[in-house]
UniProtKB/TrEMBL annotation:
Domain SpoVT-AbrB stretches: 12-52
PANTHER family per the UniProt record, alphabetical: ANTITOXIN VAPB1, SSL1300 PROTEIN
SUPFAM superfamilies, alphabetized: AbrB/MazE/MraZ-like
Name under which the protein is recorded: SpoVT/AbrB-like protein
Molecular function via GO: DNA binding
Keywords of the record: Plasmid
Gene name as annotated: vagC
Keyword Kinase attributed: no
Protein family (similarity comment): Belongs to the VapB family.
Coiled-coil residues: none
Organism domain of life: Bacteria
Species in which this protein is naturally found: Tistrella mobilis (strain KA081020-065)
Keyword Transmembrane helix in annotation: no
SMART domains the UniProt entry points to: SpoVT_AbrB
Amino acid sequence: MNDTRIRHVRLFRNGRNQAVRIPVDFELPGDEAILRREGDLLILEPVRKRGLVALLDSWEPIDAALPEIEDQPTVPEDIF
């Protein structure tokens, strides 16, 4: 996603750390983020959940009709 919206934000001190207020329309999901520096830029990214459950949660439902499958009973086999 390449979002070109620009906002001016305020920097402030939080103890010995510098902090920034993130406007509501720029909020990141979750409670963790990754901060990295590229030259003069600071890039803030959400930490993506990993694993099968997170992957399945990210998928959109399928609207296509699935074919009917006739459920045949198993045929017993004499193995002795």
